[in-house]
Write a structure and sequence with these properties.
This protein is an alpha/beta fold. The protein is built from eleven helices and nine strands. The protein has two domains: 171 residues, Rossmann fold; 105 residues, Orthogonal Bundle (6-phosphogluconate dehydrogenase C-terminal fold). The longest helix is centred in the middle third of the chain and has 30 residues.
């Protein structure tokens, strides 16, 4: 992979980790960090995460062979419009967003001729955000979902896959639509529930939260995730998330009725069913969605 310059727009947890992963592999490339907050960029340079920085995206992406979008997805379109005339011919634009269908469509339409967008979603991260949380190990032994469309350039796709594999990620190809359908349930729904669960307890009595033990902390850890990011994800994947939420409401209502009717044996079976599902989560074995929907050639 002959990336001589990499521009990272949004140097936080994911963007910083991407830069550190490149440095760990000793890629012979200059890394430019781009963002709105100069102090954050200065901090990133002091930590040797990036080599140089700019607060002006169209200047920062000049001559970059690879451009990573790692801001909240709601900012992608605006950024793409600002930088499109300044992107080097033959460059690859990719991202780390966890919603894909709308992102891929919007950005493909905005790419200038001979510039390729390849959607990517590393299934990795932490509940904490910011440059100080960045790590060169965050992508190692995790999955990275690559979401090409029928329009995706094959060479750009191959390079993107090779890069994530070099980071230690297991790459899986999905269509953008399949990705959003799956992750509405396994990622977006749990985040929404974590936010709602904490708010529910606060509505009951905010002073009782400190009595919560490790179980509550484990269940709601992701409620510490950046609210702006998850607002945008809910907006971009609204239909799929609503479908998952409706199923969740149905499931909660069912359990509520079992408790109301004191049907304890049926309730126990529900809990047992969940235990089997949780064991499947630990196994890491994917179900019917495992065979990837590969893009047409």
């Amino acid at each position: 992979m002959d990336f001589k310059k990499v521009a990272i727009i949004g140097v936080g947890l994911m963007g910083g980790s991407f830069a550190l992963s490149l440095k760990k592999l000793k890629f012979n490339c200059k890394i430019t960090g781009i963002g709105r907050k100069k102090q954050n960029l200065i901090r990133a340079k002091e930590l040797r995460i990036i080599d140089e920085y700019s607060t002006v995206p169209k200047k920062g992406v000049k001559d970059a062979d690879l451009i990573l979008l790692s801001t909240p997805v709601g900012q992608f379109q605006k950024i793409a419009k600002e930088i499109r005339e300044y992107i080097k011919k033959g460059a690859i634009v990719t991202d780390v967003g966890s919603v894909k269908a709308k992102v891929v469509k919007e950005l493909e339409d905005l790419m200038p001729e001979s510039v390729s967008f390849v959607g990517a979603h590393p299934v990795a991260g932490k509940e904490c955000s910011g440059i100080d949380a960045a790590s060169s190990e965050i992508f190692n032994n995790t999955r990275c979902i690559i979401t090409p469309s029928p329009n995706t350039d094959r060479k750009a796709l191959k390079k993107t896959i090779e890069l994530w594999k070099a980071f230690g990620s297991k790459t899986i190809l999905m269509s953008p639509e399949e990705h959003d359908s799956i992750f509405a349930s396994v990622s977006h729904l749990p985040h929404v529930i974590a936010y709602v669960l904490i708010n529910t307890i606060m509505d009951i009595n905010k002073n009782i939260l400190p009595h919560g033990g490790r179980g509550l902390r484990d269940m709601t850890r992701i409620a510490l995730s950046p609210s702006e990011m998850w607002r945008d994800i809910c907006s971009y994947n609204r239909k799929n998330i609503l479908k998952s939420l409706n199923q969740f409401i149905t499931s909660v209502t069912h359990v509520k009725k079992l408790i109301e009717k004191s049907e304890w044996e049926k309730l126990e079976k529900e809990f047992q069913k969940a235990g089997v599902g949780r064991a499947r989560l630990d196994s890491g074995k994917a179900g019917p969605f495992a065979p990837a929907n590969r893009p047409r050639r």
